[in-house]
Design brief:
It contains five helices and three strands. The chain is α/β, with parallel strands linked by helices.
Length: 98
């Protein structure tokens, strides 16, 4: 069977709608894995789905991303990555390839 990776924007509103499809695929024998920030690990595992940390070294377990609810978490994470890359004199893509 296939191994299927779900990689959604790091927002609950993008994650929750995908669970029905993921569970259907899993029930058909496919390996379903969600790659997401640790912030969403419990939510994913509570649905009986496999979790793999996204940017685990940048946002380790227990790290709380400062949430400004006027700005999406996706934009906040992108901003953090840009700042980290800039501090290392690299582009965000170069920084993530390390």
């Amino acid at each position: 069977m296939a191994k299927i990776l779900f990689l959604t924007l790091p927002e609950t509103g993008h994650l929750n709608p995908s669970f029905k499809l993921a569970k259907s695929l899993k029930s058909r024998g496919h390996a379903v894995i969600y790659s997401q920030l640790y912030e969403f690990e419990e939510c994913i595992c509570n649905e009986g789905l496999e979790f793999f940390p996204l940017f685990g070294q940048l946002f380790p377990k227990g790290h709380q991303v400062h949430r400004d609810y006027r700005i999406s978490l996706f934009k906040q994470v992108a901003g953090i990555l840009d700042n980290l890359a800039f501090a290392h004199h690299k582009t965000a893509v170069e920084f993530l390839k390390q």
